């Protein structure tokens, strides 16, 4: 949500419309009317085609494919809002806010949607706002602002305070504390739902009547609001697996029916995530397959040196989702060679996967500016946009980020033109992962190199006690004059929202994560770090979470070897309990 405007017109107008309801600092002047009979009488029965239609307010600032997929998956049809009247005539309206607060308000104000939205909500018609769709209901936001919001709820949207080391964005699975009946959040007390945001609203006396749940991340913030038929959630139900689908189902199937009072639970803590990674590439027969290497070598070295084929990407992703993966990543490992948008099978894989997988999807490989054979230039932003439209929630940049960081460290200038900067500016930091592919380089003394070293737990082959981690590009094929530590700090400054920290030495070895490396990097940055490479046993996940401050652990081989995720998930739950 921290992206700046994605405006097509460039005309800014953040003035609140005279039609909008008056704000009250006490929160007491706005009284929703009784719901209309139509919205009340239909419970979970789809009695007519109108009842099975959900109106979606997609103002075109990002990917809402996942929300669409989830709604369709639950058996509903979607009608897109084309004009303000479509809002007013909606039977139930879903508003999955994406992108930046200012950009969203600008679009809503320009085309009359803001007025229609306020009238619809004033009438207490069934409404579900998601993420930015919750924040926009408040008075204003500090995101690139202050910027006025719809002003329906007292409160200011502000950024999480990272000054005391809190990792921002807040990315991952957290639990919420239910504070009042909402009718849609029953049974989710103690269950994890998926958040991804840098901005939040704090509870106050003025907005307390609206709050239906809070969440804890450094502080208690509003995770959902409810009044009458108006609901909004800061988390992403469409990315929260079965729990999220049940929330959506309840909203779509019910009107304002009230349910049992839920008990308030204890404060939550962001859970450590387990990410399933699928390295994909086109094999020698031209099929897109899941493969997996040892120290980045994906050839069989027998049977004609073929690329290892572990199965079909869509099927495997679906299986890992069912087994409980918190996220799924696709890395197109030869994307650096070709033009990614020429890789239509990869786009198709994303589209198909996102129809049935309701946890975050990341895609990486080859994201950079590109000029094709006919001289047509494609910006990395266009490439990323196509991935987002096809169902990705995050994109991962490898080689291009290394070159960008090198340039930044050399000149000290942020050009704003790199892939990393452009994509994070438009889609938000939380949508951009930088994937680092470092190789361990032993040295006798930290003075031997200009890069940050660590004292290694296990000395090198000649008794060396230190190592630095050399970044590579093109799938480990080329070493670069930059260390993982220097790269991580640079890409954080340039706008990365997360770091995927691989290690070529450990990749595919099943001997455990490189704890020295992961400690080094996770202590150097304030954005979340995903530990990757080397998991071979459930204990390796416990070890990395206990010994480092990594936010997530990614693995590939262990899952491909059918060592089930579910066992690991049980262990992860235990680890999280111990870490609280
Ligand atoms: O440089 O922007 O085109 O991105 C290429 C992407 O593809 C990078 O994210 C890079 O890490 C990845 N990649 C390139 N070549 C390979 C290869 O294996 N030959 N895969 C490759 C990297 C590393 C992890 C792996 C973990 C866990 N694979 O993704 O899944 O190491 O494995 P394990 O649990 O089996 O040990 P660009």
From TrEMBL:
It catalyses: L-glutamine + H2O = L-glutamate + NH4(+); 5-[(5-phospho-1-deoxy-D-ribulos-1-ylimino)methylamino]-1-(5-phospho-beta-D-ribosyl)imidazole-4-carboxamide + L-glutamine = D-erythro-1-(imidazol-4-yl)glycerol 3-phosphate + 5-amino-1-(5-phospho-beta-D-ribosyl)imidazole-4-carboxamide + L-glutamate + H(+). The keyword Nucleotidyltransferase does not apply. PROSITE patterns: GATASE_TYPE_1 (PS51273). Pathway: Amino-acid biosynthesis; L-histidine biosynthesis; L-histidine from 5-phospho-alpha-D-ribose 1-diphosphate: step 5/9. Residues 1-11 have a biased composition (Polar residues). Substrate binds at residues 366, 502. Residues 398-399, 435-437, 507-508, 533-534, 556-557 are annotated as: PRFAR binding. It is an enzyme of class 3 (hydrolase). This is Imidazole glycerol phosphate synthase hisHF. The gene is LOC103715056.
